[in-house]
Amino acid sequence: MHDPAHLEALAAVLRTGSFDGAAAALNVTPSAVSQRIRALEERVGTAVVIRAQPCRATAAGARLARHAEDVALLEHALAADLGQEAGRPHVRIAVNADSLATWFLPALSAVAGLLYDIVLDDQDHSAELLRRGEVQAAVTAHGAPIAGCDAHRLGRLRYIATASPAFAARWFPAGVTAEALAEAPALTFNQKDRLQSDWARRMAGRPVALPTHLIASSQAFVDAARLGLGWGMNPEPLVAGEIAAGRLVALSSGTLDTELHWQVARLAARPLARLTLAVRRAAAAALS
After folding, report:
1. Handedness of CA 67, 72, 75, 76 (dihedral sign)
2. Mean pLDDT of 224-230
3. Is residue 98 part of a domain?
């Protein structure tokens, strides 16, 4: 058995990014935090924290921190069952930025008594965080249940290729063609984002090398399109008003849907049952 105080110190260091931050969160001295981490490392026989700015977990540290968070969730659920005062455990969740910007926050706000640690990652890659034990739940495009997890289908988030009217007139005067796509500046969220490339390939009938800006913000993505910086695949809930007002136009009637699923680690499934219900309700109200 690991000392709960040692695990709590590890989780605090990784959550705050420093020994000083963990000390403040736990109301102890930085020296006490350091001693607890050192004792834990001696216990497991390996380093659990990469002492950098910010501090990061080793593979062993990430697994132990996840265990600490799971235990805190189970104790929270037990206290609630017994009608006792319960603390507020942290829940680490991976979610794509577009879901966070459109439909996911109402689900979080519907469940009291939890503190959320949101990890932003592309829906095509967030499942890997679950496999590595770095999060307890994830919004993911991965539909088949990950080992040790329960999976729930949420629906489809629809994307529309949008640009400002002036941008569309300048770069796509004859419509969306492979030649126009190869010249018109695109918007890409980050290197993992394949939406623009997938839509362009569908429209052109072949892969197209897109000249692109990298902008890792859902709202800035919309703003950049509205200001004529480039074209991009924007989630329909974010741009419906902009299109209705004429500030953005759809480049074609062709849309792209992304299937989303909620996967939650089985050990945390019961303590997170209310959150799972809230996520499924919010998705049902907002997704196709």
Report:
1. negative
2. 97
3. no
CATH number, domain at 51?
A: 1.10.10.10
CA-based angle 51:56:62, to the nearest 5?
Answer: 125
Say how far apart CA 77 and CA 179 lie, in whole Å. Answer: 58
3-class DSSP state for residue 251?
strand
* In a domain? residue 15: yes
DSSP 163-182: E-HHHHHHH-TT-S-HHHHH
Render pLDDT for 268-286 as a digit per residue (tens, 0 to 9): 888 899 999 999 999 999 9
- Which pLDDT does position 256 carry in this prediction? 93
Q: Tokens for 7, please give them.
A: 């695990």
Which CATH number is 178's domain given?
3.40.190.10
Domain boundary among 67, 91, 106: 67
Q: Which of 67, 93, 114 is the last residue of a domain?
A: 67
- Rounded to whole angstroms, the Cα distance separating 53 from 38 reads 18
**Average pLDDT of the segment spanning 42-47:** 91
Counted domains in the chain: 2
Domain hosting 41: range is: 1-67
Greater confidence, 241 or 77? 241
Summarised one tens digit per residue, pLDDT across range 111-160 is: 988 899 899 888 888 888 888 878 889 999 988 989 889 999 999 999 99
Nearest to 21 by CA among 31, 13, 29, 10: 13
pTM of the model: 0.80
Is the pLDDT at 79 greater than 70? The verdict is no
In-domain check, residue 264: no
In a domain, 82, yes or no: no
Task: Give bridge partners of residue 220 from the DSSP assignment.
Answer: none
Write down the pLDDT at residue 85: 64
